[in-house]
Amino acid sequence: MNLTSTDVSAALGTPVHGVEVVETFTASAADVARVLIRRADGSSFTVIAKLASGAGRAAARREVQFFEQLALKWDHPAPQLVGASDTGDRVLLLTEDLGAAGYRVVGTDVTDRQLHGAIDVLAGFHQRFWNDLTAAPDLEPSVTSSAQAWPPEVITRHAAAVRSEADSFFAEATELTRTERAVLDKVITGWERQFQARVAGGQALTLIHGDFHFLGNIFFTGDDPRPKVIDWSELKPGLGPHDLAYSLSALPARQRDADNLLRHYWKALGVPDYSWELCTWDFRFSAVSNLFQSVFQHSIRWYRASLATLDALDSRSALTAPPPVSAAG
Q1: 104-328 in CATH: which number?
Q2: How far apart are CA 60 and CA 233, in angstroms?
Q3: Long-range pairs, 136-140, Cβ under 8 A, ≥24
Q4: Is 220 strand, coil or helix?
Q5: Would 60 disulfide with which of 52, 107, 279, 295, CB 3.0-4.6 Å?
Q6: Of 26, 25, 56, whose CA–CA distance to 34 is shortest?
Q7: CA–CA separation, 276 vs 316, rounded Å?
């Protein structure tokens, strides 16, 4: 990471004596590292720095907007904002170092208590922005990382992007069988039609995290079941259960308990006019977009895992059964 004291001083709004990159992390759209910041008085502290340039600037700007505008509106689970700067060419975001505070990623070893705590946090986030699409970031939303529910025309753009990317993915993924490939064409046609029907009235929508998973974005500490959540750059309007369905895509052992976990989410959400029937439909339907993400990632492993998840969560039924939007109130 090419980070200078001048960069950090601009983000913090105060001069610093020096910076040192202590550890770097794998990321797709930005350079991410743990950085030691030294003050002139000899004291020091660490932060997590995300430095984005080129195509990665849009995602970084969405995340900065989340911290500066949306995180202030509720008791958010995100790390604390330390500083940010945007020079036009580069966007720098500095946030609390969760590792230094004792937080860690638990991955697939997440306990029942932690899983329920994460669902409670998720439900609180969704409830805060329920049917409040004016709170969405005013920057262009990402299409390729998770489904976008609003405005409706983005659904068509998303479907077209999947079809285009599938051509190159399948050209590379020669080990996929013809049957495995054929699923995508059938699924995406039903997905686009059903999604348009679901959001036509603009009801029962909220802001979603868009990348809510236990393999790297959800952190726990000690005995506290309520986690901290990082990487808010994919924030966008969507179906609330999408975040839960997305998190379970990497937890196949938990998918057999999906109905109970969804019931926990629905009760914690506590939105009176959001029926259990619509919540269930949204959940099953949301899992479909995981298949699309595997295409954008060119991942045979995740493509096959997503196919298995479609069956485990009975998601294909949502591609033919009309969304029960009349139950949204």
Answers
A1: 3.90.1200.10
A2: 6
A3: 136/207, 136/235, 136/236, 136/237, 137/62, 137/65, 137/66, 137/69, 137/70, 137/235, 137/236, 138/65, 139/58, 139/61, 139/62, 139/65, 140/58
A4: strand
A5: 52
A6: 25
A7: 18
In degrees and rounded to multiples of 5, residue 140 shows phi and psi of: -60, 125
CATH superfamily of 5-96: Phosphorylase Kinase; domain 1 (3.30.200.20)
Q: Look at residues 239, 222, 233, 160 and name the one whose alpha carbon lies nearest to residue 192.
A: 160
pTM: 0.93
So where are the chain's domains? 5-96, 104-328
The pair of structure tokens assigned to 79 is 């790390």
Estimate to the nearest angstrom the gap between the alpha carbon of 129 and the chain centroid. 15
Per-residue pLDDT tens digits of the chain, which is 329 residues long: 889 999 999 999 999 999 999 999 987 789 999 999 999 898 999 999 999 999 899 999 999 999 999 999 999 999 999 999 999 999 999 999 999 999 999 999 999 999 999 999 999 999 999 999 877 777 667 777 677 788 888 899 999 999 999 999 999 999 999 999 999 999 999 999 999 999 998 899 999 999 999 999 999 999 899 999 999 999 889 999 999 999 999 999 999 999 999 999 999 999 999 999 999 999 999 999 989 999 999 999 999 999 999 999 999 999 999 999 875 44
